[in-house]
Give the backbone structure.
Amino acid sequence: MSLIKFTNKGIYCEQGDFYIDPWQPVNLAVTTHGHADHVKWGNKAYLCHELTRPILNQRLGPDLVIETLPYNKEISINGVKLSLFPAGHVIGSSQIRLEYKGEICVVSGDYKVEYDGISTAFEPVKCHTFVSESTFGLPIYKWQPQNLIFGQIKDWVSDNRDKGKTSVLVAYSLGKAQRLIKNLAEYGEIYVHNSIANLNEGFIRAGVDLPESIRITADLKKETLQQGLVIVPPALAEGKWIKTLQNAATGVCSGWMQVRAGRRWRSADAGFALSDHADWPGLLSAIKATEAETVFVTHGFTATFSKYLNEIGIYSEEVKTQYGIEEEEAAEKPIAEAI
Amino acid sequence: MKRFSELIQQLETSNKTNDKIAALVDYFSNADDRDKPYVIAMFTGKKPKRPVNTALLRAWAIERSEIPAWLFAESYSSVGDLSETIALVLPPPALVTDRKLHEWINDLAALTGKPDEQKKEFILNAWNSLDTQQRFIFNKLISGNFRIGVSHKMLVNALAKQSNTDSNKIMHSIMGKWQPDQISYEELIAGAHVNTDNSWPYPFCLAYALEVNPEDLGEESLWQAEWKWDGIRGQIVKRNGELFIWSRGEELVTDQFPELHFLRDELPDGIVLDGEILSVKDGNVQVFSILQQRLNRKTINKSQLNDAPVGFYIYDILEYEAADIRERPMSARREILELVASRFKTKDVAILSPVVQFKTWEELTKIRTKSREMNSEGIMLKRLDSLYHSGRKRGDWWKWKINPYTVDTVMIYAQKGSGRRANFYTDYTFAVRDGEKLITIAKAYSGLTDKEIKEVDAFVKRNAVEKFGPVRTVKPELVFEIAFEGIAESKRHKAGLALRFPRIARWRKDKKAEEINTLDDLRQLLNSTLS
């Protein structure tokens, strides 16, 4: 009998009687990471990596029942051995490894294979069944090494400074924002939106080595930001607040910026193809490293990617889930209106 | 190539004209001199012959990237551009090169007629030495289809700014006959291959819309009335044996209108005429949509010449016997103009725009109601003693347009605006009834107050039915009166017709969706304007 089932509530492990990243309330939600499409409010208990705890408290509330684990520590739930391995997607993101009677299954949530300097580096885990995303599962998505992309971002910021412009980087509050802060910290003061500042405080309290950034508050003078560097979440990118900034140039940091149509659609001044998801070669190398016999593809270009895996001799099925739908939009909206 | 690649990136990452012009000025100030004429040629649509066909490029890209053809096809449909898809699917380059843009273009041209194997070797080698963005550009050089939102006008303005040269001179110069491999940037800008002094047009004199009653303009006898024609305002220049036709967009359109070329022989030298390019058949002015078939074409065929013959209705004369006469009063200019026109041997093609005779404002008001019958937009009023001003000046010339056509429609799609209005649904699509169905007839962006926009926005947010990317389908409930200037047949639109200059006249809160106009109503209107 298979270790996991795809149900209308989420990914279910019957032997252990728990769900992984469910989208409807359950008793025990094992959580891969803190993005809104992977963790919902209303579960009786959560099990996640210790660095995901501050995210859940920040986003879902302080009174949750949360149990945490470090990476590579095995526990048993109803006879199913469970352990977490780094997924390299965002801080605290984990692949969930399940083992029962010699059968191993790994649910990876979202992942990327390149080390981003702040999330624990992705670690391939050998298994029989692997559950993969395919957000960028087309061969047109091949990321440049991040040092090159950060070089471009730095050039852009300094060019803006020369022109007297404020640089506004648009990035998800969880993941991309911290990655930018870590990699651009030596480049001057970084001002961040509330939603990012709140998460950062949680991370710093939890012991993450995150450089300082300054929270944008209502009483902060706009002139202070002049020619500086600001990070805001996507929900704010086209909002009123940005418009009140004098002379701002916006740069969107997202894998979708790889394609010209994506850049034009966002009507940003610049687009940087910086992603927290694996690119095409990354997905393939990660999957091959698992040596899995069966690969379930949960979100992204599922049909195409699954068909390709079958063609190269890896049995694969696409499954319908609610992951990858307007990532973070739900989490950002109320905060966006508060500013 | 690197510098050009940067330029393209800059042009693509801004949608502000000023930024684009700044990027172009910067490029033409710093780029390799030999590249510049090639870039001008490219942006003005001078296409070299395509050296390698698309099917081969595609096949080589699939082979080199080691992916199945179906996966390439999936990628292509996601990207939407073949040159870009190829640039993205190929493995990263193993080599580097600092080959210049003009070298690439010349090498590509030299491939024409060579065996496929040789072409393949060259192309694969190029792909393997260029980064993604440069590969994309390289692929575009092969296809010759470079569409990156740089209009003719924008390029001319940038070149004028960079070289501190009058933009009309630049326009004439780059419209002339030249080859990028045989002319330097300086020569091109200086117009060494053409005599730009010959083409030199004057700024057009423009009129404001009349917002008061004509009675308030005073004595009738001080004014001349003409029909306001709905065509392309144009200036015809004849100097030193050469003829030039300029459109109001400050573009040279001489080649587009061969019917007017007789003026090269029949106009004396040193003359400049202001008038309207119109489609005129059997002595009658046709609607704008017929003239439209003749616009922006590189070549004109016989049936177009036959279906939409062009004439020139002359309004004014600005230069006579090589002297600028714009400072003389209009009545004096008109006398000279009548003399010039009377000498044409070719009749009925270039004619004086007729003066509308009237004694009282009341009489003229009545005459004006007949404008549509002549396919005119109304009446022009010009003071007999007016000078020919540069640009718009209040007081001497007025356009007194008739009211536009209107149609009652229902809103069915909405999309968020841009800039200041990015948070609101401000761009709407409207439909009329066609039996049981609703059929889209116009898209409009303007015409509502900010308060109304907020109200409509709230309605859209509450009543969105479906979502297609940024577009929302909404419950067909809100009725708007759409004003428009004309109607034409259109194969591109589902309704089979298209409205000219549609805009929201008012929100008809008093009307229900059942009361809107039908497609048949519009068809009837279309037929009445064509007959």
Observations:
- Residues 326-339 of chain A have pLDDT under 50 and may be disordered.
- Residues 105 and 129 of chain A are 5 Å apart (CA to CA).
